[in-house]
Structures are given as structure tokens and as C-alpha cells.
Amino acid sequence: MTEITKKWYVVRAVSGKEKKVKEYLELEIARHKLTEYVSQVLIPTEKVFQIRNGKKINKEKAYLPGYVLLEAALIGEVQHVIKGIPNVIGFLGGKKGGEPVAMRLSEVNRILGKFDELSETEEELRIPFTIGEAVKVIDGPFNNFSGTVDEINEEKKKLKVMVKIFGRRCLNSLLTRRSEEID
After folding, report:
1. By residue range, what is the domain housing residue 116?
2. What sign for the dihedral angle of Cα 116, 122, 128, 130?
3. pLDDT tens-place string over residues 113-128
4. What separation in angstroms does the CA of 85 have from each of 13, 66, 124, 134, 140?
5. What is the rounded CA–CA span in Å between residue 126 and residue 171?
6. Which of 83, 118, 129, 137 is the most buried (most CB within 10 A)?
7. Residue 63 within a domain
């Protein structure tokens, strides 16, 4: 028996439904006994953590939202089974309704290399604050004071907060959580 040549394809999915599409793909492939034609289904994700209510929350975020990578040989009914899955828009390709275009090997290596790099690297801190937002200082000389975010420094992971003391505005640059009790 000859070896089936598989190539990497990009399946367009409804944004935010990538995990469901992956689950459906794996179920349909197993149900139709097409495992010899489809070897891998991947959703490139990156790990990020956010600070919410003073606590660090780990989250996985899609690196390529709306896309699912698929290593397959599109022989026979494989392509039609994939297109018939809920939340699948179709294959990324040349013409609308035309044949799917396989990814070049350099693209695959770049995306998979980036995917591996994102899963191995240390998680990125996202500061979920906006300028002008009301916050409560929880550390430093202005502890328990309320103020507003004046400046956000993503590189140093710091905020500058304006705090009112005796009717005057003062600057504080240490902040770690939002205020839930500001009027």
C-alpha cells in the first residue's frame, strides 16, 4: 500500500468557535473513518495572563483567530466532510468555491515554530486598565487612596495614578488592582 501524501491546509471558522470546530472535526473524522487521511488538527494558541480583581488569571488566546490548521490529504469525501461541519466557513484558498490551496512548507514551519515558541515562552502580562479609569491604590504611601489612571507603561508593567490629597492632585506610580468601591 502506498503512503498517502498529506499537506497543511487552513480551514476558516467562525471567530471564537475554533475549539468547537476542532472538536467537531475530530468527531466527524473518527465517525467517517477518515483518520488515515487527516492526521492533525491544530489551533495555534498563546498563553497570556491578566490581573483581574488583584488576582493573576491564566488564559489561552487564539494566536490566529478564525483559523484552524489541518494536515490532511483531500481525497474523496474528506473535503466535503470538513466543509459540512458547523461553524466552518470553508478552506483558505485561491478562488471562492474553488479548490483549497495547500500552505507552503516555509509557512507551516514559521507558524508551527511560532506556535511552539508561544507555548514555551513565559506568559505575557496584559494590563487591563484604561486611561481615566477609577482605581484604588493597594500598596505604597498612598495605600487605600482612590484615584484615576493617568498613564500606562506596558514595558515596565506600571501605571501612573493621580490621587487627590487635601484637594490637590498627586502622582502615584504603583498600582495593582481596580477599585470596586469607588463612587
Report:
1. 7-126
2. negative
3. 766 655 554 444 455 7
4. 10, 14, 34, 45, 55
5. 22
6. 137
7. yes
